[in-house]
Amino acid sequence: MNDNPGTGYGRLLCEEPFIKMYADFSSWRMSDFVKQLEATKEKGRVLPFVRGLRLSAHLIYAVRDILSGTGLEANWGHLLDKDRVFCSCECDVIIHRSGYFARWDGSIHPVMDFKFIKQQDAVVVISCKSLLRSRAEVDREYCELMKPFVKRVWLFAECCGPRSANSIREQALRCGYEKFWYLYTWTEGTEPEPNRGGWNEFVEEVEKLKQ
Fold it and tell me: Which has the higher per-residue pLDDT, 96 or 35?
């Protein structure tokens, strides 16, 4: 992608992944059928873990495009410590220098493509959440566990409440996350509101990693 997307085609191309994600993800939040299943905790629901995994996949695709040709990559996986004895928690998105130590199920058309990355090659790890309702749901332990492996951890949520976004950001920073973003705000009683500005800020921060 262009290093300076501006307001023309560059900006439109940068926002394409956001527009698609917002439309696809928010439609599930607004579905009366899905709302009913969630309210009654029926079996057969799409679990938040799966929604979070879908979000991380979309972010990986977007970050790969932003960093194309830079020597930086984005993958799902674990970080290996310097002695290659222990690994980190599972990382939804690892932005790292080119290459990997090992991979599981990587192929031309993989069902799973999980990478083991040497910690010295890691630049940023992004933790993805499907829904953050309040500051109490920010995972402090994750940052603590990641400290021995990587200096920079970002938090990215599919959505959060319109009144809780700022307090979640404040709590995320207190817990050790360097940055916090979300695709849109939403509650059971409100319409989804896209966070286009936040997405453009996210793209700008990823662009800075090229330097």
Answer: 96
